[in-house]
Amino acid sequence: MTSTAPAACASCGTELAPTLLRCPACRALAHSAELSRLAREASEHEATGRREEALGTWRQALSLLPADASQAEPIQRRVAALVGAGAEAAAPKAPDALRRFGPWVFGLVLILWKFKFILVFALTKAKFLLLGLTKASTLLSMLAAAGVYWSLWGWKFALGIVGSIYIHEMGHVAALRHFGIKASAPMFIPGFGAIVRLHQHPATVGEDARVGLAGPLWGLGAALAALGIHLATGAPIWAAIARFGAWVNLFNLLPFWQLDGGRGFRALSRHQRWIAVGALGGIWFLTEEPLLFLLGLAGIANALSKAPEEGDNAMLGLYASLALLLALLSRLAVPTAGA
Predict the structure, then answer these.
(1) What is the pLDDT of residues 222-241, one digit of tens each?
(2) Which residue, 183, 184, 192, is CA-closest to 165?
(3) Residue 338 falls inside a structural domain
(4) CB count, 10 Å around CB of 246?
(5) Is the dihedral of CA 151, 173, 290, 234 positive or negative?
(6) Is the domain of 231 the same as that of 276?
(7) Which residue range forms the structural domain that includes residue 41?
């Protein structure tokens, strides 16, 4: 914002610091000209059906407005309407009867709906997945990460794991684009995974939870795809990729700090957090996956901390369902025959 900040107030000529959103003398909006341009641009995007571009532009306008500005409320309503329109278009048309079975089943149905046809998913998302590879920073850092894993486990496993991590991160990017939030392409950190840098931030804990859990959701899709290839070809390397990828995504469900699970937990009420802890305990009893013990401990700490009064049932169901399916995949038996 500092690079485009006006040096002086357009109304009274008072010199302005780069971070000011209002003129200290006449109280005029410091970025009035830029705000007018952004409003025109966002309206043009809406008129031509470019919802994601309109969302991003309106959010950029909000970042230039003081919180108490009269213009902020109508823009927030436009953002909420555009987010709602995107959710309605993307939501699976599941029968209403499914909702009676509770948030866990709803989350599981949502996952199965999204991944019931791996081929259809690959065909519809292939172009989007290739988008990140057009960025030099993503491609070069991906190759560096692959080199590290190659030196440890061989090139086949290295490429599989890097691809799994990439799909996980592109899940975050897809969710951010859905909400009109600008972010960088994935950047790999060799030996530690990858990150996506946000240029804007989610407006609510619900948005942040959906962006956070989108990574493990897409990571689950990558693990299921690897499992499918293993079942079709019998190659043990694909079973190993599916298992390790599932474990990495399960680790990301740890409800701690900025990990994906922590972002998901922030949308849950205290009662829902205890339900999630109980679910983790039940999944541990079923799968005997040791990592679930750590997730449960972090979940208890979250359940004892401050939580919203109204929780998000969909996020509870999605979190529990992801934990169950990823834990099952993380216990997948890997054949020892030559890969």
Answers:
(1) 999 899 899 888 899 999 99
(2) 192
(3) no
(4) 28
(5) negative
(6) yes
(7) 2-87
